[in-house]
Design goal:
This protein is of the alpha/beta class. The protein is built from 20 helices and 18 strands. It binds alpha-D-glucopyranose.
Length: 474
């Protein structure tokens, strides 16, 4: 089974969020199960020189972008048993970051078309082209429009994964011919709501649509979650499914993690975790007392549920729970947390920024891990927290609902609440605190959390099954 995994980011080369984690770990897991899954990425300027050093040049060609032809070079490298291809065009990718430029639509239309052109120049014939999120959503669209007639492309099947439906790649219709090379009679494929919508194009064109948890696959049929695409997705429900992401259990392993103050595993966690908690408190100047620490590692954007936290954060602090937050994003939330830390020194610690090292220290050093998301397609942090014995407190949505069960019945691995309501969230935090105050019960819960298996074991098999099914679709 040959799969080309098309993504705009993958660990360790380029990463801004969960997609980077998944694209960096799923292909490895598929290859361990006998697939030949390769990954194609843009050759971003931000890729570290030590990784660049291992790349070798393969070929170059031109890619049609409207009426122009743009240069594209292909480099390749191996990492953790996975072959990567990097598409080079300095005009598009020699920039200071991955996204956020005025011409992102053009940059990723170029990238998607270049992936298809690349197949003429490399020694790899995929059975499946698997694209992800709006940045590579035009891959199945272009395949059908411009390449199907050629033998090499005629049998390729396409999968498209929605990691977050909020980001659809919406642009003005004037892009159609000059930039996207899509003529008026084909405009309907990508046109939605008087805009060009990249994600809509993939939903139309791909053979299978997947999303990153079974619950999210149902939620996106509902207007509350779908950012306008619910009706279309209901029509396409026959080809849609949800497969829960896994995490890379080598990267996130408290037994070997070099970022944290002490290593531990489920058989001897108590001392190691206490040392990590002590170190975390020292780093954030928090009081060393017998209260629990609640950790958050998150982008500071509204769908992460931060309005709930804003509403009741002081009640949490006044209950004695300490808060540590690592993240960045909207100014409104950044300033809220900075002010909270200023008001409650010794009880609240805040780091505004994206810092993987510090994130690991929060996973290891906190007692609770809070994710009150308004929507959460999958969420990986709650799975990481479990592995580090940090008990998740989550809202029952998307992948949070599929991975965390309330421990109220003596069986679950965390604390959950259902409504998007600040006081329900507060109640879950206080229930967690009550749980924490009973050391024997808490030990059982922490051990149960650490014994959960959210490696790719099960999910990689589901993807293999899906690809097999797709191969025989037509
Ligand atoms: C997006 C989603 C997140 C998911 C990740 C990987 O970042 O917001 O919930 O875990 O993609 O699929």
């Amino acid at each position: 089974m040959n799969i080309l995994y098309c993504a705009s980011e993958a660990q360790p080369y380029a990463m801004s969020g969960g997609l980077g984690d998944v694209a960096g770990s799923l292909p490895k897991a598929l290859n361990a199960r006998g697939a030949d899954c390769r990954v194609v990425l843009p050759l971003y300027d931000t890729i570290k020189p030590e990784l660049r050093e291992h790349m070798t040049y393969l070929a170059n060609f031109t890619v049609p972008v409207g009426w122009r032809n743009q240069y594209c070079g292909v480099f390749t490298a191996e990492h953790a048993g996975v072959t990567y291809y990097f598409l080079d065009n300095e005009y598009y990718f020699k920039r200071s970051g991955l996204y956020g430029f005025y011409d992102d639509g053009e940059r990723f239309a170029f990238f998607s078309r270049a992936i298809l052109e690349m197949l003429r120049h490399i020694d790899f014939a995929p059975d499946i082209l698997h694209s992800n999120d709006w940045q590579t959503a035009l891959v199945p669209v272009y395949l059908n429009l411009y390449y199907r007639a050629e033998e090499k492309y005629s049998k390729i099947k396409t999968a498209f994964t929605i990691h977050n439906i909020q980001y659809q790649g919406k642009y003005g219709l004037e892009m159609l011919s000059d930039i996207l090379s899509i003529s008026e009679e084909n405009a309907h494929i990508v046109e939605f709501d008087h805009c060009v919508n990249f994600m809509k194009g993939a939903i139309e064109a791909a053979d299978k649509i997947t999303t990153v948890s079974p619950s999210y696959a149902l939620e996106i049929l509902d207007p509350w979650y779908a950012h306008g695409l619910d009706k279309l997705l209901r029509e396409k429900a026959y080809k849609t499914c949800g497969i829960l992401n896994g995490i890379d259990v080598d990267t996130y392993d408290p037994a070997t993690d070099s970022y944290i103050a002490a290593n531990y595993d489920v058989t001897n966690y108590s001392e190691g975790k206490s040392a990590c908690k002590k170190a975390l408190r020292e780093q954030f100047n928090l009081e060393q007392n017998d209260m629990p620490v609640l950790g958050m590692v998150t982008r500071l954007v509204s769908h992460k549920g931060l309005d709930l936290v804003r509403h009741v954060a002081e009640y949490i602090v006044l209950s004695g729970i300490q808060i540590v937050l690592v993240g960045n994003g909207d100014y409104m939330y950044e300033s809220f947390f900075n002010e909270l830390a200023a008001k409650y020194p010794g009880r609240v610690g805040v780091y505004i920024g994206f810092n993987p090292e510090l994130a690991h220290r929060v996973y290891a050093g906190a007692d609770f891990f809070l994710m009150p998301s308004k929507s959460e397609p999958c969420g990986l942090a709650q799975m990481v927290a479990l592995r580090y014995g940090t008990v998740p407190i989550v809202r029952e949505t998307g992948g949070l609902r599929d991975s965390i069960k309330d421990s109220g019945d003596g069986m679950g691995n965390g604390f959950t609440f259902n409504s998007y309501n600040a006081h329900d969230m507060l109640d879950s935090c206080l229930r967690a605190k009550t749980g924490y105050e009973n050391p024997q019960g808490w030990k059982i819960l922490v051990e149960r959390a650490m014994n959960c298996d959210f490696s790719w074991n099960t999910s990689a098999l589901s993807y293999m099954g899906l690809y097999e099914e797709m191969k025989n679709l037509w």
